[in-house]
Amino acid sequence: MWPPRRYYGIIKFAMPHDLAPMTAAVTTESLSEAIGRAEQALLHRQNPDGHWVFELEADATIPAEYVLLEHYLDRIDPVLEAKIGLYLRRIQGAHGGWPLYHAGAFNISASVKAYFALKALGDDPDAPHMVRARQAILAAGGAERTNVFTRIQLALFGEVPWRAVPVMPVEIMSLPRWFPFHLLKVSYWSRTVIVPLLVLMALKPKARNPRGITISELFVTPPEQVRDWIRGPYRNGWGRFFKAVDAVLQPLEPHFVKGNRQRCIDQAVAWVGERLNGEDGLGAIYPAMANSVMMYDALGYPADHPQHAIAWESVRKLLHEGDEAGEVYCQPCLSPIWDTGLAGHAVAEARGAATAEVDAACDWLRARQITQVRGDWAETRPDAPPGGWAFQYNNDHYPDVDDTAVIGMLLHRQGDPAHEASIELARQWVIGMQSRGGGWGAFDADNDHDFLNHIPFADHGALLDPPTADVTARCVSFLGQLGHAEDRPVIDRALDYLRREQEAAGCWFGRWGTNYIYGTWSVLCALNAAGVPREDPMVERAVAWLLARQRPEGGWGEDCASYEGAPPGEYTDSLPSQTAWAVLGLMAAGEAEHPAVARGVAWLASQQKADGEWDEAPYNAVGFPKVFYLKYHGYRLFFPLLAMARFRNLRQANSRQVAYGF
């Protein structure tokens, strides 16, 4: 560590010769002004009832699927679709197709859906952007090489035969728990998507498609001639085994006993109805919600039937007017609980915990704690009391461990006795959700039956919800911040898990945020909260990794391509959210005095706009690595504020020890 030198309120550091031209300098006054602007910008976006909610953007897939849903149902809104068309055309890549994230590589499944949607809403196939897209799709092997979910969409429109998709019989609903495949053995998101889809795959309905749109021009081989819809490369022998099982089931499935099939359809419909979740929708995620709408339609429910109507409204609730004039896109879900928890931490750090704005946020959050519903998680953890929070406005069957830990830490740092009961319920639920290996998954415990990721239906490789380093870190941070002596064995098991999960380079994988910077920041916060000394080799290696990834201008950035084999912790530019994570991680590791931290903070201050916000075009999170990526529009606001405010607070305090787990 280089010795710091302070000059009259200006923080400077002696640095090696080759970095001297880029030495950071930020005055105490300018830092305070930057924090104040960021704080006001964030407070300006707070809703009157105390909560925050920011846009949650994915790739072209969800907006395209929404357009196709309107055409499936013949509920076409031309004005709305024209606005979605503006969005889809703008995000088309230079390669001619559509990527999974900002400036990403061509993705054939997203591209086929986007092309189909644009053609459905009226784009001329001979228009230049459509020609470029078609050429890129054909060069990549054609629509026959799309993933399973895209081929299901195409089957619903009659563009491919149903043999193009793996067999998923609705009889799955009646399988016993001991059977190799069972709904409780897959993740919550898979469960909610699969159940209504099982009904659709049993009934095999066909889209109304009133304009008669087809995309036969996207196939290299005519669909009726394709014989290898389901093919490798297989990741291991399980893939070849399940492919053989599918080959047996394909001719048998149409002959399953009709009476039992109807009972299983009824069971699936009842399962969906129990979890329909009002206007927040099944699972509160778009694919499940859209499948529920199509399921009710296929069953003949009229559009004004209460369940059909609320399912449709839940989908419409996800539509969002984009930042670009006239554009609309469909969000994959809404993130108010997560956004409010993170924004609350940032404002609490900037203003101090006892502020009216944070109090209002905490009151809003406490009212949404799930204390009465024992969701699907209780099937594997029957002794755990309910006490978690969802990710969305409402999703009582599926509370989120990550959200619960973040909110628990926010309530705890407030020091308000009124929060104690909520914190204790959250603590008990989080402890109850620990998996046997010491880690935590996001929504379920021990959801790690890896062989299921090799069934043909799971070509996305994200059927499960196993423990991850970032969620585990958040739970350790929460329990460490609370400081209950009796929780030490729980924490120690989790620390053993985190130690095993550290990469050879010193970083940790980020399952829910991009990527190794996110994971490493999360774990360093946890190690600090758990009292792991900074001299621990685990901490030292992580710090060294972060320091080595700092960019010349002082910030940090990471490409979503790191999920696909690109170098961890690297990007072409520094990014506000990743820079904030790196700085927060280093401060949690006891490196508040390190010149790299000051340079990172200086870079954040230099990139702030006059309105107190930051711009960040790249995506900063992930739904399913290699398959589905996310951009949280709030990350560019609350993480830089949190980092700058913490830097200031540590400099002004007698101790450089971060007091909180987050």
**Beta-strand residue fraction:** under 5%
Biggest pleated-sheet summary? 3 strands, antiparallel
Poorly predicted parts: 1-23
Work out the helix count: 22
Total beta strand runs: 8
Primary descriptors:
Glycosyltransferase; mainly alpha; 3-stranded antiparallel β-sheet; single chain; 662 residues; 22 helices; globular; disordered N terminus
Summarize this structure briefly.
By secondary structure, this protein is mostly helical. The protein has helices at 28-44, 61-73, 78-90, 108-120, 128-139, 148-156, 188-203, 237-252, 258-274, 286-298, 306-316, 336-351, 356-366, 401-414, 420-432, 469-482, 488-501, 516-529, 537-548, 576-588, 595-607, 635-652, and strands at 4-7, 10-13, 26-27, 56-57, 319-321, 328-330, 621-624, 628-632. Helix 4 (108-120) packs antiparallel against helix 5 (128-139) and helix 12 runs parallel beside helix 22.
Q: How would you describe this protein?
A:
- The chain has about 650 residues and is mainly alpha-helical.
- The chain folds into two domains: about 30-55 and about 335-650, Alpha/alpha barrel (Glycosyltransferase); about 60-330, Alpha/alpha barrel (Glycosyltransferase), CATH 1.50.10.
- It is about 45% helix and about 5% strand.
- The protein has 22 helices and eight strands.
- It has helices spanning about 30-45, 60-75, 80-90, 110-120, 130-140, 150-155, 190-205, 235-250, 260-275, 285-300, 305-315, 335-350, 355-365, 400-415, 420-430, 470-480, 490-500, 515-530, 535-550, 575-590, 595-605, 635-650; strands at about 5, 10-15, 25, 55, 320, 330, 620-625, 630.
- The strands form three sheets. Strands 1-2-3 form a three-stranded antiparallel beta sheet. The protein has a three-stranded antiparallel beta sheet with strand order 4-8-7, with no helix packed on it.
- Helix 1 (about 30-45) runs antiparallel to helix 22 (about 635-650), helix 12 packs parallel to helix 22 (about 635-650) and helix 21 crosses helix 22 (about 635-650).
